[in-house]
Write the structure tokens for this entry.
Amino acid sequence: MSGAGVLSATDREPTDGEVVAQVLAGDAEAFGIVIRRYEAGLLRYATRMLGYPDAAADAVAEGLVRAYRHLATCRDPGRLKSWLYRIVGNRCRSHLARRSTSDLSLDDAPPIADPSDNEAATERAEQMAQVERALETLSAEKREAFLLKHVEGMSYEEMAAVTGERIPTLKMRVHRARAALLEALKEYE
Amino acid sequence: MTHIDPLLHRVLDGESPSDDLTPSQREQFAALQRAVRLLAEAPAASVAARVMAEVRRPPRSLGQRVALWLTERHAVTISVRPVWSLALAAALAAIAVIPARGPGPVLGEQEGIAQFVGRFPGAKSVEVVGSFTDWRPGAVVLRDDDQDGIWRASVVLPVGEHEYMFVVDGERWVTDPLAGRYLDDGFGRQNALLFVRPLAR
Amino acid sequence: MIAWRVVTCLLAAAPRLSAQGSFARLAGRIPPPALTAIDSILVAAHREGLPTEPLIEKAFEGGAKGVAPDRIVLAVSMSASQLRSARALLREAGESQPTDPAEVTAVAAALGRGLSPELVGELTAVLPGEPTGPALHAVADLVGHRFAEDSSVDLIVAAAQAGLRGLRFLDVAAAAVQDLQRGRSHAAALAHVRSLLPNVPPPPKPAPAAVSRARRVQPGPERP
């Protein structure tokens, strides 16, 4: 994933707009820059939305492939990040909608603790499990709002571009998510 | 339900400084910050190779796309005039989904299929033990054919209610986290509860 | 000496248990010290007309899970109490002869998920002559996702009045839970599902590949 042809004369990192233009001009390898730039955040977001890393990897991979194939429809390449999160968010919602609550799912299950972990790692894993369980009690919309605001560090304007919701609605969701998460964390202490 | 003061919301939104928070509000703030720090840990996995493989793949020909469509399951909605419907049904029956294997077991009217799946990386064996095995181990063994740590089994069971647990490596009893419905077993644990429906409906 | 006493106890117990053919099934599957006490529980249950199969299964479960003999006895005793309570509730609800052991067992299991006993009467009144178990489990599914018990009962009663029966009640509960997970409030989810009745979607059928590779349960090897 070198994307070397995209670097400008001053060797600064290309902007998202420049990368998109390069890809649309026929340089498929330049899409590697997009992946390198946004993969970690997208995987983190999808993992927290879906709860399972393998399902999250599927959602992100499918979302990025879709983004590559429909790159020409990204109306404002300067807001590529919001566009990518929107695509992956839609894939996460599709995955969640396909899950049934009363029947067994064919998706992967949460990991079990490895007894060979040392004490500090085990304690951290337990804290993570508590937070993940608390996050799972939130509705998908509240979970998404909390993750985009606090974990992905988006402004309400960026969140509006990702979700298509109005800013007052998003603020209310984030406020309710905070209260619900604190309530759930108390139960799992 | 936990109440969060509007001042704390403003602090969390970056609209106010945190200096005026009361001690209990600071506790709530700290709890949320701890949760965010944990959630912000980036997963180790990468999908780069997988995505770039697709990006580099040459576009499929029309014939390849049709062949791919025929071998995948699809939900198809078609509106037709009634007089054509029989002919179309016959034509669609000829374009059947190709099953992965043979026809499988013949099920009675009061039998259905239960699918068990569990993630146990590093496990040597995983089985299901429950009311439908008379709580006898060894009767329903899961498989992990592709060695990805995900164990599966598909089992013919009588229609109705069943209780079960997973048993990992012959000795560790684990409640199925995906079951969604549980019952205290009377021994300090929880059995998963499963309802099997008739396959033909 | 202890082994001899155990054998003596077993021989003494055999005629009582063997009347139901249970002794042969229990021996070798549960710790010998628990056999006599469990035999007493089974005999009493049989005399009262309670189903004994769930009690035998609970004993097997304890043996398989390696539980101490006294805990197995306690669990079987509690299961018998739950069956007794379930049958009493069905009788109070107007069932003149609740002799269907499957219904008693299903109601006991559903009550074991924490529902209030009054529900049995309410649901039995709406479903005279129909099995109450699936309706109770549907309410338990909803309550497990923090729907209020009375609102959950109202929804299942509405489903029954709309003509739904049996496992379809579970589909009603599943639809409400899915609505909740899509972001609706509890009240909105209940209202939405009520508006769909009786056309609540059933769960997806297993994929053809899952059906073709399905296996029947095999008798497993005996473990020491």
User: Anything to note?
Assistant: The mean pLDDT of chain B is 80. The radius of gyration of chain B is 26 Å. Helices of chain B lie at 6-12, 23-39, 48-56, 62-70, 82-94.
